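note to self: dont lose this again. the chain is below, predicted strucutre after it. 245 aa total, dont forget to put it in the shared folder this time
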Amino acid sequence: MSADQPTILATSGGFRPGTRTRVELAPLVHHAVELSGTARRPRIVHLGTASGDQRAWHADLDEAAVLAGFDLRHLNLFTMPSVEDVEGLLLDADVVWVGGGSVANLLAVWRVHGLDEVLPRVWRAGVVLGGVSAGSLCWHVGGTTDSFGPRLRAVRNGLGMLPYGNGVHHDSEPERRPLVHALVADGTLPRTHCTDDGVGLVYGGPDGTQLLEAVTEVPGAGAYVVERAADGTAVEERLEPRPLR
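---
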């Protein structure tokens, strides 16, 4: 079953330390499943490209998915695609969830394997796309990243399915907010949507690009819209997220 409109959940969260397992799927991942509208046992495909398809992390996620009652598969691209029919695997999912790491490397590898063309088709077919950090930035036109080294820099070659900039970890990494403001002020990034840790942005509507709401799994965390003012400065407005249970 697919969502009734193209849907993306772009986040700075989704995982938390487990009690019986090393990691658990936090409310943001569960919300992605809810957005899919599935009435069957949920099917999630995880893409760990940004962290190099680390099999140990994948094993932790496998345990977390069993605990949550989800069927989880991984699409590995290292050292080659793990399935023959990549698009078929993704279309069979209710949710595609993209993990964090290097967004620059993720985008390069995806383009080598044609996922920059496949994922928009999957999105338009109603599969919910989601992810954390690099898995949030990738859907936008660009944002801020440490993919190139310890000093944050702009990335501007995102898939552009969402016509905005994106800022992640807005509250937990001190260099993120001022760099987003500078990039919006000088025109490097367009209107930019940002998330504190534990917050997600839900995009939908007829074309899938409308910001419908912000949601959070962390009390007190916020979402933000940063825009360029007439005087050339950046102005930030807080969006109050809806708490998830």
